[in-house]
Amino acid sequence: MSAVANAIRASRGALRHVESTQSWIVSAPEAAVLLNRSLVYYNGAFSPPTLAHAHIVAAIASYPGVDAVWMDPEPARPKKELWLDETFDARVEMCDRMLAELGLEDVSGVGTLRRDLGPEAGSSIDLFHTLRTLLGGVGHGRLVWALGADVLDNMRFWAEKARTFVQPGHTCDGFLVFIRDGWTEEKLREAATTVLGREPKADELILVAMPENLAAASSHKARKALVLQGAQRNTGECAPQNSTSLLLPVIENLCHTLPHVLEAYSDQVASTPDATPIVSASTDPAQAQDAFSLGFRCRE
């Protein structure tokens, strides 16, 4: 395992707040690898991580100037405690295996920072203060948050708080946004201008288009396919190799060795027959008051 992957892995369970992060930096030799890095933080449910997630993390890792990517599987959130709790360790392992399969461990790793900080701090500006501390503190390194277009759009409804997330040198230096179905560069630049209260600088908003064949990919579709495939295997029906077409084979095979994950996915599919809804403040303004939980509601 490379130094970056090992350093991020070593941080799991150790970072509870900025003070504990400072102590960990002093005591853990792995921590030095992250100092002054140009780090992109990429969080999401990754349940399971799909080919779309694989494309995104590979694109981030190859983006000019980026030398570290931190993947962070989402902890449990309201109304999804069981599904996310039951699969958390498995999702961390899936992300580990995906990065290894893609050959990205030299610049990427999987952490559990949001879970370790707890539901309150992990959904607040404390998350970015902690990451900045890992880079060496104020003025050190570069920190970019990779997020979905829907999250950036929702930030318009709590712009004042969102602005605290982008304080170059202190919290984030910018956003890296992947353009998916139904979004345009113009619309996202308008949203970013509203969020920041000014037009974003070139390095504060990085827009990356998704390939057409992956733009509509989702973990929901992958879960449904895995559940169907598992049922076919249980009844002796012949399921084609990698029949989901949405997952790396290593992820698909791992899922089929984890009965508790397939059971959780089966329950989730039965409870959400349509795609897991992405609550949008633009379609439901009442949701805008739940600022931080809305902001960290990342597309699965």
Instruction: Please indicate the count of domains.
Output: 2
* CATH level 1 name of the largest domain: Alpha Beta
Which CATH-level-2 architecture of the largest domain? 3-Layer(aba) Sandwich
Output the strand order for the largest sheet: 3-2-1-4-5-6
| Mean pLDDT rating | 88
- The assembly state of the depicted protein chains is single chain
Instruction: Please tell me what the overall shape is.
Output: globular
CATH superfamily of the largest domain: HUPs
Report the end-to-end length measured between terminal Cα atoms: 27 Å
Query: How are helices and strands ordered from N to C?
Result: HHEHEHEHHEHHEHEHHHH
Describe the overall structure.
By secondary structure, the protein is an alpha/beta fold. The protein folds into two domains: 3-214 and 279-295, Rossmann fold (3-Layer(aba) Sandwich), CATH 3.40.50.620; 219-271, no CATH class. Helices cover 43% and strands 11% of the residues. It has 13 helices and six strands. It has a six-stranded parallel sheet with strand order 3-2-1-4-5-6, sandwiched between helices. The model is unreliable at 276-299 (pLDDT under 50).
Could you give a quick summary of the protein structure above?
By secondary structure, the chain is α/β, with parallel strands linked by helices.
Labels describing this entry:
6 strands; Rossmann fold; 11% strand; disordered C terminus; 2 domains; six-stranded parallel sheet; alpha/beta; 13 helices; 300 residues
